[in-house]
Amino acid sequence: MQFIDQARIAVRAGRGGDGIIAFRREKYVPAGGPAGGDGGNGGNIVLVADTNLQTLLDFKFKRLFLAEDGKRGGPNRSTGSSGKDSLIRVPCGTEVRHLHTGMILGDLTSDGERIVIAFGGRGGLGNAHYLSNRNRAPEKCTEGKEGEEWLIQLELKLLAEVGIIGLPNAGKSSLIRALSSARPKVADYPFTTLVPNLGVVRRPTGDGTVFADIPGLIAGASEGIGLGHEFLRHIQRTKLLIHLVDSGSEDPVKDFSVVEKELKAYGHGLIDRPRILVLNKVELLGENHQKDLVDSLEEVTGKKLTLISVAMKKGLDLLLNKVWGELDYQCL
Ligand SMILES: Nc1nc2c(ncn2[C@@H]2O[C@H](COP(=O)(O)OP(=O)(O)OP(=O)(O)O)[C@@H](O)[C@H]2O)c(=O)[nH]1
Ligand SMILES: [Mg+2]
Fold first, then answer.
1. Which residues partner with 34 through β-bridges?
2. What confidence tens digit (pLDDT) does each residue in 280-321 have?
3. What is the rounded distance in angstroms from the CA atom of residue 330 to the CA atom of residue 52?
4. Does a structural domain hold residue 1?
5. Is the N or C terminus of the chain more exposed, i.e. has fewer CB atoms within 10 Å?
6. With a 6 A CB cut-off, is 173 part of the ligand 1 pocket?
7. Which sign does the torsion angle of CA 181, 185, 188, 191 carry?
8. Looking at the CA of 164, which ligand is closest?
9. Domain containing 268: what range?
10. Nearest atom within ligand 1 for CA of residue 216
11. pLDDT tens digits, residue range 2-54?
12. What residue's CA is closest to ligand 1, atom 32?
Protein backbone atom coordinates (compact mmCIF):
# COMPACT_ATOMS: atom_id res chain seq x y z
CA MET A 1 0.00 0.00 0.00
CA GLN A 2 1.27 3.43 -0.88
CA PHE A 3 1.89 5.79 2.00
CA ILE A 4 0.62 9.29 1.26
CA ASP A 5 0.77 11.82 4.04
CA GLN A 6 -0.25 15.06 2.36
CA ALA A 7 -3.22 15.92 0.22
CA ARG A 8 -5.13 18.88 -1.09
CA ILE A 9 -8.83 18.71 -1.62
CA ALA A 10 -11.56 21.08 -2.75
CA VAL A 11 -14.80 21.05 -0.84
CA ARG A 12 -18.14 22.70 -1.50
CA ALA A 13 -20.98 22.51 0.97
CA GLY A 14 -24.58 22.34 -0.26
CA ARG A 15 -26.58 25.41 -1.30
CA GLY A 16 -29.64 26.24 0.77
CA GLY A 17 -33.01 25.59 -0.89
CA ASP A 18 -35.07 28.62 -1.97
CA GLY A 19 -38.11 29.78 -0.05
CA ILE A 20 -41.26 29.93 -2.16
CA ILE A 21 -44.34 32.06 -2.62
CA ALA A 22 -47.59 30.18 -2.20
CA PHE A 23 -51.06 30.85 -0.79
CA ARG A 24 -53.32 28.57 1.10
CA ARG A 25 -56.15 27.47 -1.14
CA GLU A 26 -58.74 25.30 0.46
CA LYS A 27 -62.41 24.94 0.20
CA TYR A 28 -64.19 26.86 2.99
CA VAL A 29 -61.04 28.76 3.92
CA PRO A 30 -61.37 32.05 2.12
CA ALA A 31 -58.29 34.25 1.99
CA GLY A 32 -56.17 31.46 3.48
CA GLY A 33 -53.08 33.62 3.54
CA PRO A 34 -49.47 33.14 2.54
CA ALA A 35 -48.20 29.58 2.96
CA GLY A 36 -44.87 29.40 1.11
CA GLY A 37 -42.41 27.18 3.01
CA ASP A 38 -38.73 27.78 3.70
CA GLY A 39 -35.98 26.07 1.81
CA GLY A 40 -33.94 23.37 3.55
CA ASN A 41 -30.33 24.03 4.62
CA GLY A 42 -27.48 22.82 2.45
CA GLY A 43 -25.45 19.83 3.67
CA ASN A 44 -22.13 20.36 5.47
CA ILE A 45 -18.80 18.82 4.61
CA VAL A 46 -17.56 16.91 7.63
CA LEU A 47 -14.21 15.21 8.25
CA VAL A 48 -14.32 12.11 10.43
CA ALA A 49 -11.27 10.40 11.95
CA ASP A 50 -11.13 6.67 11.35
CA THR A 51 -8.57 4.35 12.96
CA ASN A 52 -8.92 1.88 10.11
CA LEU A 53 -7.23 4.24 7.67
CA GLN A 54 -3.45 4.63 7.59
CA THR A 55 -2.79 6.99 4.69
CA LEU A 56 -4.31 9.82 2.69
CA LEU A 57 -3.99 7.73 -0.45
CA ASP A 58 -7.70 7.96 -1.30
CA PHE A 59 -7.34 11.68 -1.89
CA LYS A 60 -4.98 11.05 -4.75
CA PHE A 61 -7.92 9.79 -6.74
CA LYS A 62 -10.80 11.86 -5.44
CA ARG A 63 -10.14 15.50 -4.75
CA LEU A 64 -13.47 17.24 -5.04
CA PHE A 65 -16.13 16.75 -2.39
CA LEU A 66 -19.64 18.16 -2.66
CA ALA A 67 -22.47 18.02 -0.18
CA GLU A 68 -26.13 17.85 -1.19
CA ASP A 69 -28.15 21.03 -1.73
CA GLY A 70 -31.19 21.80 0.41
CA LYS A 71 -34.58 21.36 -1.29
CA ARG A 72 -37.00 24.20 -2.13
CA GLY A 73 -39.75 24.98 0.32
CA GLY A 74 -43.20 23.57 -0.44
CA PRO A 75 -46.76 24.88 -0.23
CA ASN A 76 -48.69 24.73 3.06
CA ARG A 77 -45.68 26.03 4.92
CA SER A 78 -43.74 22.85 4.40
CA THR A 79 -40.00 23.29 4.75
CA GLY A 80 -37.80 21.69 2.11
CA SER A 81 -35.60 18.86 3.29
CA SER A 82 -32.02 19.68 4.24
CA GLY A 83 -29.15 18.40 2.13
CA LYS A 84 -27.26 15.40 3.47
CA ASP A 85 -23.85 16.07 5.03
CA SER A 86 -20.95 14.65 3.12
CA LEU A 87 -18.66 12.64 5.43
CA ILE A 88 -15.01 12.31 4.48
CA ARG A 89 -13.02 9.69 6.38
CA VAL A 90 -9.41 10.48 7.23
CA PRO A 91 -6.80 8.61 9.31
CA CYS A 92 -6.33 9.57 12.96
CA GLY A 93 -3.58 12.16 13.24
CA THR A 94 -4.73 14.28 10.29
CA GLU A 95 -4.22 18.01 10.62
CA VAL A 96 -6.55 20.19 8.59
CA ARG A 97 -5.73 23.66 7.25
CA HIS A 98 -7.10 26.24 4.89
CA LEU A 99 -4.80 26.06 1.90
CA HIS A 100 -4.51 29.79 1.28
CA THR A 101 -4.37 31.20 4.78
CA GLY A 102 -2.61 28.25 6.42
CA MET A 103 -5.05 28.58 9.30
CA ILE A 104 -5.47 25.33 11.24
CA LEU A 105 -9.10 24.24 11.26
CA GLY A 106 -8.53 21.25 13.47
CA ASP A 107 -6.58 18.19 14.30
CA LEU A 108 -8.35 14.84 14.24
CA THR A 109 -6.68 12.59 16.74
CA SER A 110 -9.19 10.12 18.16
CA ASP A 111 -11.45 7.67 16.38
CA GLY A 112 -14.82 9.13 15.44
CA GLU A 113 -13.76 12.74 16.08
CA ARG A 114 -15.28 15.07 13.51
CA ILE A 115 -15.07 18.64 12.34
CA VAL A 116 -17.20 20.57 9.91
CA ILE A 117 -14.87 22.13 7.37
CA ALA A 118 -17.53 23.77 5.16
CA PHE A 119 -20.97 24.80 6.28
CA GLY A 120 -23.97 24.42 4.03
CA GLY A 121 -25.89 27.58 3.05
CA ARG A 122 -29.06 28.40 4.98
CA GLY A 123 -32.36 27.81 3.25
CA GLY A 124 -34.30 30.88 2.02
CA LEU A 125 -37.52 32.06 3.67
CA GLY A 126 -40.95 31.41 2.19
CA ASN A 127 -43.57 34.14 1.98
CA ALA A 128 -45.34 32.82 5.11
CA HIS A 129 -42.56 34.58 7.01
CA TYR A 130 -43.47 37.98 5.65
CA LEU A 131 -47.07 38.07 6.79
CA SER A 132 -47.78 41.29 8.67
CA ASN A 133 -50.76 43.47 9.44
CA ARG A 134 -49.81 45.81 6.64
CA ASN A 135 -49.31 43.13 4.09
CA ARG A 136 -51.71 40.24 4.35
CA ALA A 137 -50.64 38.70 1.05
CA PRO A 138 -46.84 39.18 0.76
CA GLU A 139 -45.31 38.18 -2.51
CA LYS A 140 -41.81 37.99 -1.18
CA CYS A 141 -39.43 35.13 -0.50
CA THR A 142 -35.65 34.78 -0.32
CA GLU A 143 -33.21 32.54 -2.08
CA GLY A 144 -31.07 29.95 -0.33
CA LYS A 145 -27.48 30.94 0.43
CA GLU A 146 -24.50 29.34 -1.28
CA GLY A 147 -22.59 26.76 0.73
CA GLU A 148 -19.01 27.47 1.79
CA GLU A 149 -16.31 26.51 -0.65
CA TRP A 150 -12.67 26.01 0.33
CA LEU A 151 -9.40 24.48 -0.69
CA ILE A 152 -8.18 22.34 2.16
CA GLN A 153 -4.76 20.97 2.98
CA LEU A 154 -4.63 17.65 4.83
CA GLU A 155 -1.46 16.54 6.54
CA LEU A 156 -1.07 13.24 8.33
CA LYS A 157 1.16 13.21 11.39
CA LEU A 158 1.34 9.74 12.81
CA LEU A 159 0.41 9.32 16.42
CA ALA A 160 3.28 7.56 18.08
CA GLU A 161 4.57 8.13 21.58
CA VAL A 162 8.10 7.04 20.83
CA GLY A 163 10.07 7.79 17.66
CA ILE A 164 13.15 5.88 16.54
CA ILE A 165 15.65 7.99 14.62
CA GLY A 166 19.16 7.58 13.31
CA LEU A 167 21.23 7.34 10.16
CA PRO A 168 20.34 4.76 7.51
CA ASN A 169 21.41 1.24 8.51
CA ALA A 170 21.57 2.03 12.23
CA GLY A 171 19.10 -0.80 12.86
CA LYS A 172 15.90 1.20 13.45
CA SER A 173 13.65 -1.22 11.62
CA SER A 174 15.42 -4.18 13.22
CA LEU A 175 14.69 -2.66 16.62
CA ILE A 176 10.98 -2.15 16.00
CA ARG A 177 10.79 -5.71 14.64
CA ALA A 178 12.41 -7.02 17.80
CA LEU A 179 10.14 -5.06 20.10
CA SER A 180 6.77 -5.31 18.37
CA SER A 181 4.97 -7.39 15.82
CA ALA A 182 5.57 -4.79 13.10
CA ARG A 183 7.43 -6.33 10.16
CA PRO A 184 9.23 -3.59 8.22
CA LYS A 185 11.91 -4.69 5.80
CA VAL A 186 15.44 -4.94 7.17
CA ALA A 187 18.49 -5.01 4.90
CA ASP A 188 22.14 -4.03 4.94
CA TYR A 189 21.83 -1.11 2.55
CA PRO A 190 20.78 2.46 3.34
CA PHE A 191 17.22 3.66 2.80
CA THR A 192 15.63 0.27 3.17
CA THR A 193 12.76 2.01 4.87
CA LEU A 194 10.98 4.45 2.60
CA VAL A 195 7.88 5.18 4.66
CA PRO A 196 7.31 5.33 8.40
CA ASN A 197 6.30 2.13 10.20
CA LEU A 198 4.35 1.88 13.39
CA GLY A 199 4.64 -0.92 15.92
CA VAL A 200 2.83 -1.47 19.18
CA VAL A 201 5.12 -2.42 22.05
CA ARG A 202 3.49 -4.05 25.09
CA ARG A 203 4.35 -2.92 28.56
CA PRO A 204 4.57 -5.49 31.35
CA THR A 205 1.10 -4.29 32.37
CA GLY A 206 -0.22 -5.24 28.94
CA ASP A 207 -0.87 -1.68 27.72
CA GLY A 208 0.37 -0.92 24.23
CA THR A 209 2.58 2.02 23.30
CA VAL A 210 3.05 3.01 19.68
CA PHE A 211 6.61 3.30 18.38
CA ALA A 212 7.43 4.79 14.98
CA ASP A 213 10.40 3.81 12.84
CA ILE A 214 11.09 6.49 10.27
CA PRO A 215 13.39 6.43 7.23
CA GLY A 216 17.05 7.27 7.90
CA LEU A 217 18.29 10.83 8.03
CA ILE A 218 21.54 11.93 6.45
CA ALA A 219 23.61 15.09 6.41
CA GLY A 220 21.85 17.76 4.38
CA ALA A 221 18.40 16.27 4.93
CA SER A 222 17.17 19.77 5.69
CA GLU A 223 18.06 20.73 2.10
CA GLY A 224 16.20 17.70 0.84
CA ILE A 225 19.13 15.29 0.48
CA GLY A 226 18.32 11.59 0.84
CA LEU A 227 14.71 11.29 1.76
CA GLY A 228 14.98 14.74 3.32
CA HIS A 229 13.10 15.95 6.32
CA GLU A 230 9.86 14.77 4.86
CA PHE A 231 9.27 12.15 7.53
CA LEU A 232 10.33 14.01 10.64
CA ARG A 233 6.79 15.35 10.65
CA HIS A 234 5.72 11.94 11.89
CA ILE A 235 7.72 12.20 15.07
CA GLN A 236 6.55 15.72 15.87
CA ARG A 237 3.95 14.38 18.23
CA THR A 238 6.15 11.86 20.01
CA LYS A 239 6.99 12.29 23.67
CA LEU A 240 10.32 10.56 23.46
CA LEU A 241 12.93 9.80 20.82
CA ILE A 242 15.27 6.83 20.65
CA HIS A 243 18.38 7.94 18.81
CA LEU A 244 20.17 4.89 17.43
CA VAL A 245 23.85 5.05 16.60
CA ASP A 246 25.53 2.22 14.70
CA SER A 247 28.68 1.25 16.58
CA GLY A 248 29.98 -0.57 13.50
CA SER A 249 30.10 2.58 11.43
CA GLU A 250 33.34 4.38 10.64
CA ASP A 251 32.76 7.33 12.92
CA PRO A 252 29.86 6.90 15.37
CA VAL A 253 30.60 10.26 17.01
CA LYS A 254 30.16 12.04 13.70
CA ASP A 255 27.03 9.98 13.00
CA PHE A 256 25.57 11.27 16.22
CA SER A 257 26.25 14.91 15.36
CA VAL A 258 24.81 14.57 11.86
CA VAL A 259 21.43 13.55 13.23
CA GLU A 260 21.65 16.15 15.97
CA LYS A 261 22.27 18.85 13.37
CA GLU A 262 19.35 17.73 11.24
CA LEU A 263 17.00 17.73 14.21
CA LYS A 264 18.09 21.27 14.97
CA ALA A 265 17.62 22.37 11.37
CA TYR A 266 14.13 20.89 11.31
CA GLY A 267 12.95 22.92 14.28
CA HIS A 268 9.49 22.31 15.77
CA GLY A 269 11.17 21.72 19.13
CA LEU A 270 12.43 18.26 18.14
CA ILE A 271 15.91 18.95 19.43
CA ASP A 272 14.53 19.56 22.93
CA ARG A 273 12.43 16.39 22.95
CA PRO A 274 13.58 13.91 25.62
CA ARG A 275 15.91 11.51 23.92
CA ILE A 276 17.52 8.20 24.82
CA LEU A 277 20.85 7.75 23.13
CA VAL A 278 21.41 4.13 22.14
CA LEU A 279 24.47 2.45 20.69
CA ASN A 280 23.45 -0.56 18.59
CA LYS A 281 25.40 -3.55 17.23
CA VAL A 282 27.71 -3.54 20.29
CA GLU A 283 28.52 -7.22 19.78
CA LEU A 284 30.74 -6.07 16.90
CA LEU A 285 33.03 -4.19 19.26
CA GLY A 286 35.95 -5.56 21.23
CA GLU A 287 35.87 -4.75 24.93
CA ASN A 288 38.54 -2.04 24.83
CA HIS A 289 37.21 -0.45 21.73
CA GLN A 290 33.73 -0.43 23.25
CA LYS A 291 34.93 1.44 26.33
CA ASP A 292 36.79 4.05 24.27
CA LEU A 293 33.81 4.58 22.01
CA VAL A 294 31.35 4.86 24.87
CA ASP A 295 33.62 7.33 26.66
CA SER A 296 34.06 9.57 23.65
CA LEU A 297 30.35 9.49 22.76
CA GLU A 298 29.32 10.29 26.32
CA GLU A 299 31.79 13.12 26.40
CA VAL A 300 30.55 14.67 23.15
CA THR A 301 26.89 14.21 23.89
CA GLY A 302 26.83 14.74 27.62
CA LYS A 303 24.33 11.87 27.82
CA LYS A 304 24.50 8.40 29.27
CA LEU A 305 24.52 5.74 26.55
CA THR A 306 22.36 2.63 26.47
CA LEU A 307 24.15 -0.28 24.82
CA ILE A 308 22.17 -2.82 22.84
CA SER A 309 22.56 -5.43 20.19
CA VAL A 310 19.35 -6.07 18.35
CA ALA A 311 20.91 -9.05 16.59
CA MET A 312 21.88 -10.73 19.88
CA LYS A 313 18.77 -9.45 21.68
CA LYS A 314 21.01 -7.80 24.25
CA GLY A 315 20.05 -4.76 26.29
CA LEU A 316 16.52 -4.53 24.91
CA ASP A 317 14.80 -4.94 28.28
CA LEU A 318 17.00 -2.30 29.78
CA LEU A 319 16.17 0.04 26.92
CA LEU A 320 12.44 -0.57 27.34
CA ASN A 321 12.68 0.05 31.08
CA LYS A 322 14.25 3.39 30.36
CA VAL A 323 11.50 4.18 27.85
CA TRP A 324 8.71 3.34 30.30
CA GLY A 325 10.50 5.23 33.06
CA GLU A 326 10.78 8.35 30.91
CA LEU A 327 7.17 8.17 29.70
CA ASP A 328 5.87 7.67 33.25
CA TYR A 329 8.00 10.53 34.47
CA GLN A 330 6.41 12.80 31.85
CA CYS A 331 2.94 11.80 33.02
CA LEU A 332 3.64 12.87 36.60
N1 LIG B 1 25.73 -6.96 13.61
C2 LIG B 1 24.54 -6.41 13.83
N3 LIG B 1 23.80 -6.04 12.77
C4 LIG B 1 22.61 -5.47 13.00
C5 LIG B 1 22.11 -5.26 14.34
N6 LIG B 1 20.92 -4.67 14.24
C7 LIG B 1 20.66 -4.51 12.92
N8 LIG B 1 21.67 -5.01 12.18
C9 LIG B 1 21.79 -5.05 10.71
O10 LIG B 1 21.93 -3.74 10.21
C11 LIG B 1 21.38 -3.62 8.89
C12 LIG B 1 20.45 -2.45 8.81
O13 LIG B 1 19.32 -2.68 9.63
P14 LIG B 1 17.95 -1.94 9.42
O15 LIG B 1 17.08 -2.31 10.57
O16 LIG B 1 17.41 -2.17 8.04
O17 LIG B 1 18.44 -0.42 9.54
P18 LIG B 1 17.55 0.90 9.42
O19 LIG B 1 18.10 1.85 10.44
O20 LIG B 1 16.12 0.60 9.50
O21 LIG B 1 17.98 1.39 7.98
P22 LIG B 1 17.15 2.31 6.95
O23 LIG B 1 15.77 1.78 6.88
O24 LIG B 1 17.90 2.13 5.69
O25 LIG B 1 17.24 3.69 7.49
C26 LIG B 1 20.72 -4.96 8.64
O27 LIG B 1 21.55 -5.74 7.83
C28 LIG B 1 20.56 -5.57 10.01
O29 LIG B 1 20.55 -6.98 9.98
C30 LIG B 1 22.95 -5.69 15.43
O31 LIG B 1 22.62 -5.55 16.60
N32 LIG B 1 24.15 -6.25 15.10
MG1 LIG C 1 14.67 0.81 8.19
1. 23
2. 999 998 888 888 999 999 998 888 999 999 999 999 999 999
3. 29
4. no
5. C
6. yes
7. negative
8. 1
9. 162-331
10. 25
11. 678 889 999 999 999 999 999 988 888 888 899 999 999 999 999 999 988 88
12. 281
